[in-house]
Structure formats: structure tokens, C-alpha cells
Amino acid sequence: MKLSDKPKGFTAIELLLALGVLIIVFVIGIPAFHSLNSSLALKDDAYKLVNSLRMTQNKAIVGEAFSDHGIYLHSDDFVIFSVDEDETYTYGTTHDLTDGVSLSSSDGPEVRFVRKNGTATNNTIILTDGGGNTMTIQVDASGKVSLL
């Protein structure tokens, strides 16, 4: 038999070895992908909350509906609201957080911006994902909203 007559292809051992390497790569990569996905969901929810806080502050500054405006915080969502001079609350859009992300507040369940000047109640909001990662949002009395 000549050298050129040798069958071409992979042996079973070579295929099993390649398959084993692929399985090891996937086993190592899946937890890293899950952690990355969880971290991205946390950041997305934090930016969504910051943008909603700034939007409600803008509504208060321009005096929309002659009301104060704010956000009411729950552990798995937040709700935009307005409050008229008689302290009557009108609730608007509810924004759900991504599954696995929760929020807590150190200074009460609501952040309220005062009509015309946009000042606010002090509040520190902490968002946490399932992996223990956190992001903190600070709202100070002047109305400044900061993502820490």
C-alpha cells in the first residue's frame, strides 16, 4: 500500500478528544456568561431608574399639572407619581425590574421632587442582583441624582 492510499479523516480518539475540550470550554464559560448577563441587567435597571428620576424631576421643575412629582420604590419595581396641592397622589407608569434584580432604599419608599425648584427628599437607593453585585443611586436635597 502506498502512502497516498491511506484513508483520510479523523480517528474516533481525535474526535472524542476535541469533543472533550469543547465540553470543558462550555462548562467554564457558562457561569461567566451568566455573571455577565446578571451584571448587564443590573446596570440596565440602574440607568433606567436614574433616567426616570431625572424625568420626574424635570416634570416637577416645569410644574407639569401644577404638582410635585416623584417615584415610589418597591423591591421589584418602581412607580412614577404626581402629588397635587391637596396631597392627592396620582400614579402613572410602573417599571418592572429585571428578574433577579431588587432595590432597597435607606430613606423611605419615595423620592419626591418639589414643584418649580426640583429639590428633593434625600434618598440612597441600592440595586442588587442575584450574584451580590450592587449599584447605588444617591438623590440629595438639592435634587442632584448621582449613580455611584
Structural summary, described in words:
Keywords: Membrane, Transmembrane, Transmembrane helix. This is General secretion pathway GspH domain-containing protein. It comes from Candidatus Buchananbacteria bacterium CG10_big_fil_rev_8_21_14_0_10_42_9. The strands form two sheets. Strands 3-2-1-5 form a four-stranded antiparallel beta sheet, with helices on one face. It has a four-stranded antiparallel beta sheet with strand order 4-6-7-8, covered by helices on one side. The radius of gyration is 26 Å and the shape is rod-shaped. It starts with 11 loop residues before the first helix and ends with a strand. The protein contains one helix and eight strands. The protein has 148 residues and is an alpha+beta fold. The protein has one domain (15-147): minor pseudopilin epsh fold. The mean pLDDT is 91.
